[in-house]
Design goal:
The structure is a homodimer. The first copy, chain A, is mostly helical. Helices cover 56% and strands 12% of the residues of chain A. Chain A has helices at residues 5-15, 18-28, 34-38, 45-57, 77-93, 97-105, and strands at 32-33, 61-66, 69-74. The longest helix of chain A is centred in the last third of the chain and has 17 residues, at 77-93. Chain B binds a DNA duplex through residues 13, 17, 19, 33-35, 43-51, 53-54, 65, 67-70.
DNA sequence: GCTACTGGTAACCATGTAGTTACCAATTAA
DNA sequence: TTAATTGGTAACTACATGGTTACCAGTAGC
């Protein structure tokens, strides 16, 4: 598999938190400042800042400082990667077994140690 | 959004671990026992058992006891849910903004507190 | 200048998780 | 029946994470 394991780790871990998913939903409507993102939630600004750092680490969000505020925007490369990974497995139960077969054949056998996808 | 927040939490958290993703890769090739799944890795059997419990909690894997061994199989409903969630956001950057618009319109405004998707 | 505002960092706490070893339960096979 | 095999559970450790409050650094505006 081409996609890096660590990157998928970070992407899925970032998506595993409901506050972070809500932030992504918000950003899908357009860019926002940190304050904009913090307002709808009951959590403090530092908490949002931490979530944003996680989302940045997963490359799902980009932050650019503009004066005294930060503009946050979606950066979707990593999410596409995760979607592709999931899509491969959807092939399994969607009956499109040929797609899975192709993937399995270009993948190392499961006997290979510590070969984490 | 129809999909439960907790369920997505568990699904993405389950996918965030490389060992668990490797287990899913293995199971995509066919059912397996716990021993089969543990062999390729350097981790102990209890560790695999814990991973399987997480995967069961996310409803990605089903375990059925057959005699003294457990047969593990993919159960892909939750993964499809996660794929659908991601697909909504792929709509954003794939230019298919109408799909996103539809989703946003049937979704509560971001001002609504603790409305985590 | 001084003040207010936006955002980030530090230090801390509680909780969850990934891993270990040691042990137990149940089934298979000698 | 006894012994070996397969899995699961318990108890523990180490570490990451999500949250808080308190404080600091710039920038904007008076």
């Amino acid at each position: 598999m081409v996609t890096s394991s660590r990157r998928l780790d970070r992407t899925f871990a970032a998506l595993a938190d409901p506050t972070r998913r809500a932030i992504l939903v918000h950003l899908a409507r357009g860019d926002a400042t940190v304050g904009d993102l913090a307002r709808p939630f009951r959590v403090s600004r530092p908490a949002i800042s931490k979530h944003l750092r996680v989302l940045e680490g997963a490359r799902l969000v980009r932050r650019t400082r503009e004066g005294r505020m930060s503009r946050c925007a979606l950066d979707a490369a990593a999410m596409r990667e995760a979607a592709e990974w999931i899509e491969r497995y959807r092939a399994f139960w969607s009956g499109r077994l040929d797609a899975l077969k192709r993937y399995v054949e270009q993948s190392p056998p499961p006997g290979g140690k510590e070969r984490h996808p």
